[in-house]
Amino acid sequence: MTSFKENVTMTSQKYFEEAWNNRKLVGGALKAAHVRPDYHLYEDLLQDGVILYADMLRKLDGQKPRTEIDKLSFKKVLWQTIDALRREQRVFEHNTTIDEAYNLGEAAAWNNLVALKNEAKKLSQLEQVILFEHLLEKKTITQLVEECGVPRITLKRLKKQLLQKLRNVMENSRQ
């Protein structure tokens, strides 16, 4: 006497063998979805289709004639394949967008860096102090007032003008 588990395994294996022996049905569904045998995911799609076909054979056995099961299985494999191809396309498009954005960002960063480097050479001594010591090295305005002996209001005004000048340089470098 066989156990329930052995019986289920043998039954599932029987349907899988039937589906495998009739894998032309799955191949036809892949062809209808315009998937060629040289497509890099063809084997995966074929195996998924055979498994789906076997599952349909198991579920509908005795309920519908075999020709109807084959028609329904063909449609289901076709739909599943098209869905898998759409998912693959979305992943590809998403990854391409991320790669392009990275490359564009990298080019813009280089352009900005070159433009800022050229502009830094043109800055007055006090503007260079604000740029390098305050903005980049994070020294406070109070520290700069003490070091440079320049009034706070003057440093704040110069900082505001410098930031606007740098924004303009970066906007011009993008064009």
Give a concise summary.
By secondary structure, the chain is mainly α.
Key terms for this structure?
175 residues; mainly alpha; 7 helices; 0% strand; rod-shaped
Account of the protein in words:
The protein has 175 residues and is mostly helical. The chain is 84% helix and 0% strand. The chain is built from 7 helices and no strands. The longest helix is centred in the middle third of the chain and has 57 residues, at 66-122.
Low-confidence stretches: none
Described by the principal axes of the CA atoms, the overall outline is rod-shaped
- Cα gyration radius (Å): 34 Å
Beta-strand percent range: under 5%
The share of residues in helices is over 70%
Largest sheet: none
Average pLDDT figure: 82
Query: What is the count of helical runs?
Result: 7
Sketch the topology as an H/E string, one letter per element: HHHHHHH
N-C termini distance: 82 Å
The total count of strands amounts to 0
* Structural class determined from secondary elements: mainly alpha
